[in-house]
Amino acid sequence: xxxxxxxxxxxxxxxxxxxxxxxxxxxxxxxxxxxxxxxxxxxxxxxxxxxxxxxxxxxxxxxxxxxxxxxxxxxxxxxxxx
Length: 82
Hints:
By secondary structure, this protein is of the alpha+beta class.
């Protein structure tokens, strides 16, 4: 599944947190198989909203939904931030 072009703020967030190389690696895996085991792709609650996440690394996750056969990234989050 292809990923739509990232918004400027998301690209800036990736650069700010030195995630660009990890992002490139995970998007390659994601586009080949969005359910690749190392991505830990999951459907978030409430499930009826159709919002998913996948792992960029142990700390950061990409939040996305699928529209018109493409994944649109809506946020990059710190998975363990409370």
